[in-house]
């Protein structure tokens, strides 16, 4: 099988998959989704095959009854979706197969052997779909509520929607990433700053981010561990770094709160005793979509809280292994 990314925009990605002669397409599509961490997608396909296994759900027995087609057929139609099941991405597809005499077979796809080719269009969605076992039928069905947050966003726009990400500074970003992958199954969403880029330094950065004089950010990476807020990991050059905070020390590097009305939330925070380090400033790469802004606020005890607005979400590159988790939009369950 060969594949190519045709288009991406705001977490929506469109791929084309071209099967080779002899490929078992159901397994190939499932493996492709697993390799790229795809958690929600739709598929369509056309082509031809020299055999397939189709199913029919029989309510009387509570399971699929399968039959095998062992002849050359045209794949006249194939539609389906991908959602997260208990063992990873799960493909559910229905097909219509055309025979030589013009009659057709149709059913739930279990396997199909490609000959000579099969062209699949797969559209990945930034929303994550989850399958749960339906107690009545025993089938794994998409559970819309499982794809959304347990709690709705607050109705008051001066309150944050929730925690967006947590900042962490490490001595070596690549070593830290390797540890987080091995220990916790972490996945990289994107690199906001690489060693090939100019380091972020100077008076403006020092003031906006609360850095000591002469410090420079040399690498910055957004990582996700399971579900929940992202982990924004920094590597800095600094002549006098302090040891990592322990249990008796207060605070992380920073906690980011995703907000809808930045001015309203900032006013509420300063009224409560917080102090803004600077004026709102644009976000870094992959967060620099239209309308974006953020500002660092010092809590009374000195910890940094970032207020961040991303009305148009993140954008991702071909190297992204996952989307960044974000709290639900206000009023959406």
What does this structure look like?
This protein is mainly beta. 12% of the residues lie in helices and 43% in strands. The chain is built from 4 helices and 17 strands. An 8-stranded mixed β-sheet has the order 11-12-13-10-14-17-16-15, with helices on one face. Strands 1, 2, 3, 4, 5, 6 and 7 form a 7-stranded antiparallel β-sheet that branches. Strands 8-9 form a two-stranded antiparallel ribbon. A hairpin with a 2-residue loop joins β5 and β6 (88-98). The longest helix is centred in the middle third of the chain and has 12 residues, at 173-184. The mean pLDDT is 86.
How many β-strand runs? 17
Helix share bin = 10-25%
Taken as a percent bin, the fraction of beta residues is 35-45%
Mean pLDDT: 86
Oligomer: single chain
**Rg over alpha carbons:** 25 Å
For the largest beta sheet, what order do the strands appear in spatially?
11-12-13-10-14-17-16-15
